[in-house]
Specification:
This protein is of the alpha/beta class and 339 residues long. It is 27% helix and 25% strand. It is globular and about 60 Å long.
């Protein structure tokens, strides 16, 4: 069985394909043949050693993968051989509120992840894939899909059809967030520095687009487009370079979902800006297994097909990482593990 390993901090060139012997299944464990793995910005952070946690030994990277059950250990009742499954980002966060115990491990962060021909996971760390989603589409959901779902529908303040969602950039979380919001009857505004990507966003159904290179004070444009109201939910992925503009773009009573920090974390936010508008800032650290089940069920019912920019082969894993690093993608970057 082949798998990729990386020592956090060794960067993309440190990604190595190695052979692993197949081990016996312990009780309640499931062996999965992985068919597809999708990349997230977080995987670049792990490679560079800049993720929230670091480990001293090489790990199998990537949190997001989908495949089929090959074998089950003694006592497994949730799954059977042949089931199509995806792994949950946090193997111990099943549902409810997060806690230190529930998020103590994350696939591809401090424990082995999904970039392998086969993985072994506890049955509770897996969910069944709806028949409407193929393996490539399902592989986009555990991190990006759940993060967008959590930000818009779980951690927001009573979001309703007709409300406005502001999405920064055109990476995996933002594009999936656009698709989910549109399918739920929400108005969408999305930003990018690329007119070509903004055109693609409009083709997906974005109501308004803003080129932040042309309009650097884009928060004023958000207010103009919403007739002074602002966005009820902001998916904030930019970090210190955008967070204050995101707060200014937010509607009274709305939420700024802190998802990432592409420009680095930091940048002082004036509490008065939150107080005066009854605005909330909420940290989004992916989500639970229940949220993964919910977002995939929603995608199936809404016939939502996640946007996949490009699919690489298993042998092209480094190239996939470098393409992700380039920022050229619109939507998700996927590695097809099996032909």
């Amino acid at each position: 069985m082949r798998a990729y390993q990386i020592l956090p901090g060794d960067n993309i060139d440190g990604l190595q394909c190695v052979d692993f012997p197949q081990r016996e299944l312990a009780p309640f464990e499931v062996r999965v043949r992985v068919h597809a793995v999708s990349l997230n910005y977080r995987d670049l952070m792990v490679a560079s050693g800049n993720y929230l946690v670091n480990v001293d030994n090489p790990i199998i990277p990537c949190s997001d993968g989908a495949g089929e059950v090959l074998a089950t250990g003694h006592g497994v009742t949730r799954l059977q051989v042949g089931d199509r499954v995806a792994g949950s980002f946090f193997p111990h966060w099943f549902d409810g509120r997060s806690s230190a115990a529930k998020i103590r491990h994350a696939l591809g962060g401090d424990i082995d992840g999904m970039l392998a021909e086969e993985v072994v996971l506890h049955e509770e760390a897996l969910v069944k894939i709806p028949p409407q989603l193929n393996y490539v589409e399902a592989a986009t959901m555990p991190c990006a899909g759940v993060t967008a779902w959590n930000a818009i529908f779980e951690s927001s303040n009573d979001i309703r059809p007709g409300d406005t969602v502001l999405l920064l950039g055109t990476g995996g979380v933002s594009v999936l967030g656009l698709q989910l919001a549109k399918a739920a009857g929400l108005r969408t505004i999305i930003t990018s520095s690329s007119d070509e990507k903004l055109q693609r966003a409009r083709e997906l159904g974005a109501h308004h687009t803003i080129n932040y290179r042309i309009t650097p004070e884009w928060q004023e444009e958000v207010l103009r487009l919403t007739h002074g109201i602002g966005a009820h939910v902001v998916l904030e992925v930019g970090g210190q370079g955008t967070v204050n503009r995101s707060v200014a773009s937010c509607a009274m009573g709305g939420s700024v979902a802190i998802i990432g920090g592409v420009s680095g974390f930091g940048g002082e936010v004036n509490p008065a800006a939150l107080l005066a508008g009854a605005k909330r800032m909420v940290g989004i650290f992916v989500g639970s297994r229940a949220m993964l089940e919910e977002v995939m069920r929603f995608a199936a019912v809404a016939d939502l097909k996640p946007v996949v920019d490009r699919v690489f082969t298993f042998d092209q894993a480094k190239e996939a990482y470098r393409y992700m690093e380039s920022g050229s993608h619109f939507g998700k970057v996927v590695i097809a593990v099996t032909a």
